[in-house]
Amino acid sequence: MTQQPQPIDATRETPSPADESAEAPQSPQPAGGAPAIAGRSPGRMAWERMKRDRVTLICLGVTVAFILIAICAPLLAKVGGWGPITADSKAINPDTGNYPYGSFGGISAKHLLGVEPGTGYDIFARVVYGLRTSLEVALSAAVISTVVGTVVGLAAGYFGGKLDQILSRIMDIVLAFPQLLFLIALTPVIENALQTNAHGGTNENLRLLVLIINISVFAWAYTARLVRGQVLSLRGREFIEAAKIMGAGRRHILFRQLLPNLWAPILISFALAVPQNIATEASLSFLGVGVVPPNPDWGAMLSTAAEFFINDPAYLFIPGILLLILVLALNLFGDGVRDALDPRANRS
């Protein structure tokens, strides 16, 4: 027996879309009405880790302050009223062997950090200009060594085979050299081959260029070894195989696929190379094969101050303490960057 259709009740209301949405099950909301968690980039997460590390933030502030002082060196020297190689003969006493008048190395309103014994140069002007010289050499050498080391490490790790063996042996040889000893030996040799100025001395810009190149020659191998190890662990990953299947060339894989995944170790290597280069440059100037006198440099100031330490210890302590603060701040900041970029690092 067939079922008869039921008549439509005209008095019954058709549910509205608003009613349907009200009756539909709602998606679960976070507890307490909190907003959904948004994705964060690795750089942002690293910065948030750094902000929780007070030591790293303090070292970052100290580093930025030193960089600003180096950039503003001409302005600061002009405010002080003395240039880095402008002597004040009235500030030294010829009766005491040209030592500064007064105590603490002649510190006064006229000379904020005193004057150099024997020459009468203003120490404040020489300190700020010497900081500029140290940072120029250190940063330039760090950039060159990082770029060269990154390219060599990429090539050795990705291509492998005989190229990897040759480049790895070159890295081993460079790392085995006693860097400071060879820099001391090579700098005078290269200096003798350089064009001399009208006074028979080496041109200052050429000497700085020699320092940058010499330091870079021995520093790139550390970055190359680090990058090579990272590339060896990445070249067999799925995204590299997918790029090969899609027909990507070697240049695309190296610089568009691998290199973006290496920015963290490269940045760490650069951050740790800068303080090492500053110490190396100061050591070379201290030993007499760095910046050409009388151009200002902290290492050269320490070398000269050793002769006057008994009667004028302030001249040794001022550049020595500043060099210690700068290198220590850069090293601790580099360690903080390494910890912030490494998600597996142990943090309190």
From TrEMBL:
Chain intervals for the UniProt region annotation (Disordered): 1-40
Compositionally biased tracts (Low complexity): 24-40
Membrane topology: Multi-pass membrane protein
Gene3D superfamilies associated with the record: MetI-like
TM helices/strands, residue ranges: 55-77, 137-161, 173-194, 206-227, 258-278, 314-334
SUPFAM superfamilies: MetI-like
Descriptive protein name: ABC transporter permease
Keyword Transferase recorded: no
Presence of the UniProt keyword Cytoplasm in the record: no
Annotated family: Belongs to the binding-protein-dependent transport system permease family.
Keyword field: Cell membrane, Membrane, Transmembrane, Transmembrane helix, Transport
Organism: Streptomyces humicola
CDD domains found in the cross-reference section: TM_PBP2
Subcellular location(s) per record: Cell membrane
ABC transmembrane type-1 domain mapped to chain residues: 131-334
